[in-house]
Specification:
By secondary structure, the chain is an alpha/beta fold.
């Protein structure tokens, strides 16, 4: 199956070089505030898409079990080191364009700082919609091309692309900014209901972060975030989406076996596990299971 190209963080020190230095402390705290207000108070099975090294995963503590998914096994190894091997976490390397899960499984999902790598956002989000149960909550974040800085740069002829038009802009290879109206059109076309919108990281400006403490900027950001319901002019936008319907089950105290979640990304068949491999009972494709990570990107 031919799918769009993937931005692969294999071998990257993204967590340590981008987040752990402290230079993005304000952005991290602002995102935590948005998630705190948008996440459900309880849930059963969460799908975290583009989880990276697990920076946000502890913030989903109200979910009983979490599938920590990224394309990069390097990132997942870092996440596993951070989070541990409790049954609460299932580590999966997979392509969002062809998610290896049965339909209508998850009652929650997040995609933070990930859609901006999707050349075909509707194709990716359609896969997420397929995997969610009716009534599921999906927190989607996207990079906003209609932000104040981009508007100013365009008006003063410092950039060539127009922030007011609806098409996405690829400012670096496989890095995209989206117009809020275009994202709304996509999610509504897939059947999602938009329940809330928060604008985030209003103060992502070097000079402000230099002179004001990160916590102060984050707290002010938190007060401003609800204005996202009316206009979106920040570089990051969070939306709370719901799949229409009612969740067909209650949260349980048991843990789901990973094999009960997966379907073969090649043919949709079921898996059997043995000797560090998953083997599809229909097409015979084999996938690696190594270091606690189910690698379902490509067959062996």
């Amino acid at each position: 199956m031919t799918t769009p190209p993937v931005c692969d963080y294999e071998g990257s020190d993204y967590q340590s070089s981008f987040w752990d230095t402290g230079e993005r402390k304000y952005e991290d705290m602002a995102e935590a505030i948005a998630l705190k207000h948008m996440l459900p108070t309880a849930g059963n099975l969460m799908l975290e898409l583009g989880a990276g090294a697990g920076r946000n995963t502890p913030r989903y503590k109200n979910y009983h079990q979490i599938v920590v998914l990224d394309y990069s096994t390097t990132q997942l190894e870092q996440a596993r080191k951070r989070l541990g091997d409790a049954k609460k976490y299932i580590y999966v390397a997979a392509d969002i364009y062809r998610l290896p899960f049965k339909s209508e499984l998850f009652d929650g999902a997040t995609m933070i700082r990930t859609l901006h790598h999707m050349r075909e956002p509707k194709q990716a989000l359609a896969q997420v919609e397929r995997c969610l149960t009716p009534g599921a909550v999906f927190i989607l974040e996207y990079a906003n091309k209609l932000n104040v800085k981009a508007i100013a740069r365009y008006l003063f002829r410092k950039q060539t692309w127009n922030p007011f038009t609806h098409e996405q802009v690829e400012f670096v290879e496989l890095n995209f900014d989206f117009h809020p109206a275009a994202v709304r059109d996509i999610v509504r076309s897939l059947g999602f209901l938009i329940r809330a919108t928060r604008t985030v990281s209003h103060f992502r400006i070097g000079i402000l972060k230099k002179f004001f403490p990160a916590k102060f900027l984050a707290v002010v950001d938190g007060f401003i975030q609800p204005t996202g319901a009316f206009w979106q002019l920040s570089p990051s936008v969070f939306t709370r989406l719901e799949k229409p319907g009612t969740i067909p089950y209650n949260a349980t105290t048991g843990y789901t076996d990973p094999l009960d979640l997966f379907q073969c990304p090649e043919c949709g068949g079921t898996f059997a596990e043995s000797e560090g491999q998953l083997t599809c009972s229909d097409c015979g494709a084999k996938f690696a299971v190594e270091n606690g990570i189910y690698d379902l990107r490509k067959p062996l």
